[in-house]
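Technical note accompanying the year-one report. For the benefit of new consortium partners, we illustrate the data format agreed upon in the data management plan: each record pairs a sequence with a structure-token string. No post-processing was applied to the example shown here.
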Amino acid sequence: MEAAIAVLVAQFKAFAGADGSTDTLSKGEFQNLVTSQLPNLVKNSADPAVIEQLMSSLDQNDDGELTFLEFWQLVGRLANQHGGFSR
């Protein structure tokens, strides 16, 4: 599990760093991450409306960016669904 966490953190920082800051994902960075890294788990990820709705549901402080903790909610939701725990 440690390796999986290291990969998640590294991927977040890599995508977040596109604008110079590795602390948060902008909407564009988030869309790039989701479409390239989660295409089979996030349906219609290329649709801007899907990204907008998903980002809004994660962005707890409504600042238009996602912190790692806000992004982590998505990881948890997807893992829960993928593992069949959400039934």
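Partners are asked to follow this layout when depositing records. The chain has a mean pLDDT of 94.
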